[in-house]
Write a structure and sequence with these properties.
Helix content: 25-40%
Distance between the termini: 81 Å
Strand order of the largest sheet: 3-2-1-7-19
Strand content: 15-25%
Largest sheet: 5 strands, parallel
Mean pLDDT: 87
Length: about 850
């Protein structure tokens, strides 16, 4: 700091993300200390990540959202005044009066007042159960109202745009049933078109949202649950609360009062240098109407902040225009929109891949000669976004259809020119990132530190990883921020050290308290290396919902019960008991594709009662809820079929009883076919066994899902003993070395040498670990005990199976079913039933 400098004062009104970025930019560049900065923050908290506001739900930790350096500790040239706003501006005297009654003189005034939520003038909009979704304080109010309404109550969100779906997700996480009311004919009308909107609506409806499009909100009145919301189609929703998320408006009142020019639709009018009609006042972020246009995304907001910082230090920067591309995950659904997504350019053509079965929608908008990419929309799968967005306005490297087809061309980082913008939030090009890599940045944190790429929304991180891989940099295999080790390395640590608790493992080999990535992963490792119960002690708290209750959670809050039926075999007594249980508890019964019987609709407190009946007739848990062996499917084989060459049922029973309860990185499915006709579809399974005249052929690495893979031959014409020995080795090698949630097919493909390498390890014992793998599997087989039988004998474990902790005898009143048709179906918390297709109708 230079004490002789003629210092000026910049007063910043507003301390959101853009206001903070301005202060950071000015202080980092003002090496001579020419500017003293005073910040007025209306909120009691310093700048936080408003884009990530939904992550506050559940954790309720405001500090986790805090932006780095938001308190300017140790910087004598920055004064932050929390809980104070600007009341008025005296332009002639160049002074601001604050809500605390203070008067601040300024040389430059920077208005970063942002925007405010628009609340439609609906009768009753000021009801105490009505909220907006903008600040941490708003979410605290929504949380209190949700708790008052109780679990399962409805919550109405007025507005189906970006923030509306974020708000709906927050209500869902709070235990409410969200209704989204959107006046337009589709969700997210600014980002997606009709086709994308249809897929998006279907995907979010499957997740429990109730979508009302093409209707408005007529009135809000007090109701039995809190509020009664009447829609323009005269339908009525009884709800616990209403959240308005119908868009935002520039917060420009203080500028209007001061006589600054504002736009006809709001916003403080500026030139390209962000200077207002007063040469001493600047506007940045959402409140600024740059040459009459307001921008509501954080990326152009950051750009305006950088320009004003540059201008105050003598620069001549100008607003370069805005990239309005967006990529986000709403309720777990990928949505991306970039460039001219709606094809408004003259002569624009659209190439669309609409896969309703997979729930994906992809559209590319191209020039009239189909050579230049103009924009696009991705719904359901936005993995191509990071590669496609930088190509907007540039020649396409392949046919448009090939770039969005699952079997088409894969667009790598090498297809992008150096001036392609990788990080739109911070305007970082591919060339800048590659330059940082060349200068020694060897991981994502290093790239972030050198270039700021990936430090805002994070949407560019996948492309940054590709650039690192392309440059030959070895990527970190850290499981998460709490463990630097990979899953395979943690497995070895647990196996060698004998550590049996998550707390001991993280204390010695990790940091922090853990997260939803490492906790269930470590729980799986602990289960894979011991015969202890999955709900014993501390381990119970690590599980996700399914493992926590040893059952599959269904869409209406009930659970399914799947008893194990090795090889599809079941006794008459067991079938009778299944029927009696289904009748007594009112369950929906279905025979699954894996030759088992699934009982749907059990409330959590009914699970022990149901399993007591099933265990008493010799049935065990089918582990439909676990990352473990699900089923071993089989045909009837040589015992019944005239084409059968071996006893496929007997082998399936043997394998299922051997590997039942085996915890693994992902679910496991096996199948045994009695001949090459393949009635058990063995080559679609992780391990497939097909009978031959001389024994068994063993296939490995088959998976279904979005990218199905056929299993490949590991070894042929094996006798029973060799077959089982090879499967033991294969499964245990997979469990020890695969990443979390990595199925056998991608794990197998990622191994250097692929199937040939596996043949050497499994069949030829090239690593000298075959005996160790067999011993580990033998320990699992010897230590197996049915999980539900153990629960029924343990009062402490049984105590967790209640709908309400404070009322253990009370059933969940929000669970109901429709039984008027041919099938019993869940009615989501008393809401209108979902139409069910009935054959012949």
């Amino acid at each position: 700091m230079n004490p002789t400098v003629d210092r000026k004062t910049a007063v910043v009104v507003g301390h959101g993300m853009v206001g903070h970025r301005f202060v950071e930019a000015l202080r980092s560049r003002d090496t001579e200390g020419r500017w003293q900065v005073v910040i007025l923050s209306e909120e009691p908290l310093p700048a936080y990540d408003r884009v990530g506001l939904s992550s506050y739900v559940g954790a309720w930790d405001a500090s986790a959202l805090a932006l780095l350096g938001n308190e300017y500790a140790g910087d004598d040239l920055v004064e932050l005044r929390l809980g104070q706003c600007a009341e008025s501006i005296d332009r002639e005297a160049r002074k601001v009066t604050t809500s605390a009654g203070d008067t601040l003189a300024y040389d430059a005034l920077v208005l970063a007042t942002g925007s405010y939520p628009f609340v439609p003038p609906v009768p009753g909009h000021d009801h105490p159960r009505c909220f907006v979704y903008r600040t941490i304080e708003d979410l605290d109010g929504i949380r209190a109202a949700a708790e008052a309404a109780g679990p399962g109550a409805s919550g109405v969100v007025v507005g189906g745009g970006l923030l509306g779906l974020e708000a709906a997700n927050a209500l869902r996480l709070l235990g409410l049933t969200p209704h989204v009311v959107e006046f337009n004919a589709r969700l997210m009308p600014a980002q997606v078109d009709e086709g994308g909107g249809a897929i998006l609506e279907r995907l979010v409806t499957d997740l429990g949202l109730h979508v009302h499009t093409g209707v408005g909100t007529s009135s809000i009145e007090s109701g039995d649950q809190g509020v009664q919301v009447t829609l323009s189609d005269e339908s009525v929703i009884e709800a616990g609360l209403v959240v308005f998320s119908a868009g935002v408006r520039p917060r420009d009142q203080i500028a209007r009062d001061a006589g600054l020019e504002v736009g006809p639709r709001g916003g403080i009018v500026t030139d390209l240098g962000l200077q207002t009609s007063d040469p001493n006042i600047w506007a940045i972020g959402e409140c600024a109407a740059v040459e009459g246009v307001c921008y509501g995304l954080v990326a152009p907001g950051y750009s305006t902040a950088e320009i004003v910082a540059d201008r105050l230090l003598g620069g001549a920067g100008e607003f370069p225009g805005a990239d309005m591309s967006t990529k986000l995950k709403l309720l777990g659904v990928d949505v991306a929109s970039f460039g001219d997504a709606h094809g408004t350019t003259a002569g624009a053509l659209s190439v669309v891949l609409h896969d309703a079965a997979k729930g994906t929608y992809a559209k590319l908008v191209v020039s009239d000669d189909a050579k230049i990419l103009l924009g696009g929309i991705l719904v359901g799968d936005a993995s191509a976004y990071s590669a496609l967005r930088p190509l907007v306005g540039r020649p396409l490297p392949a046919e448009p259809a090939a770039l969005i087809s699952p079997a088409g061309a894969e667009l790598g980082a090498d297809a992008l020119p150096d001036d392609a913008q990788i990080c739109s939030c911070n305007n970082v090009t591919k060339g800048a990132i590659c330059g940082a890599i060349a200068d020694g940045a060897c991981d994502i944190p290093g790239i972030k530190k050198c270039t700021t790429a990936g430090t805002s929304c994070g949407g560019c991180v996948p492309m940054i990883k590709k650039l690192l891989e392309q440059s030959g940099v070895e990527m970190s295999k850290a499981l998460c921020e709490h463990f630097e080790q990979s899953r395979a390395e943690l497995f070895q640590i647990v196996q060698v050290t004998g550590i049996r608790t998550f707390s001991a493992l993280i204390a010695k080999y990790g940091k922090g308290t853990g997260c939803d990535i490492c906790k269930p992963t470590v729980a799986s490792i602990l289960a894979s290396t011991s015969s202890g119960h999955i709900l014993d002690g501390e381990q119970a708290a690590l599980q996700d919902t399914n493992d926590h209750f040893l059952a599959n959670l269904q869409k209406n809050g009930t659970y399914s019960v799947v008893p194990r039926m090795p090889g599809g075999e079941v006794t008459a007594e067991q079938l009778i008991t299944i029927g009696e249980v289904a009748k007594e508890f009112g369950l929906y019964v279905k025979v699954t594709g894996g030759q088992r019987i699934d009982l749907f609709g059990a409330r959590v407190e009914q699970l022990p009662l149901i399993w007591k009946r099933l265990v008493d007739v010799g049935m065990e848990s089918g582990h439909a809820y676990g990352k473990s062996l699900r089923t071993v499917k089989s045909c009837v084989g040589s015992t019944w079929c005239r084409y059968g060459q071996q006893d496929s049922v007997g082998m399936a029973v043997l394998l299922e009883k051997r590997y039942r309860g085996l915890r693994s990185p992902h679910k496991l499915k096996l199948a045994v076919s009695g001949c090459a006709r393949e009635c058990a579809e063995a080559r679609g399974k992780d391990v497939g066994v097909i009978a031959t005249e001389n024994g068994w052929n063993l296939y490995v690495g088959g998976n279904g899902g979005l990218t199905p893979k056929h299993a490949v031959l590991l070894a042929g014409d094996l006798d029973d003993e060799t077959l089982i020995r090879y499967i033991d080795r294969y499964l245990m090698f997979y469990i020890r070395t695969a990443d979390r949630l990595q199925r056998t097919a991608p794990w197998q493909e990622a191994l250097e040498g692929g199937i040939e390498y596996l043949q050497q390890v499994i069949c030829e014992d090239s690593l000298g670990i075959a005996e160790d793998l067999e011993v580990a599997m033998a320990q699992h087989v010897a230590g197996y005990r049915d999980e539900w039988a153990a629960v029924l004998e343990d009062e402490e474990k049984l105590s967790r199976f209640v709908s309400f902790v404070n009322a253990p005898e009370e059933a969940d009143p929000t669970i109901s079913f429709d039984e008027t048709g041919e099938r019993k179906v869940p009615v989501l918390l008393g809401l209108p039933e979902v139409p069910i297709a009935t054959p012949g109708k």
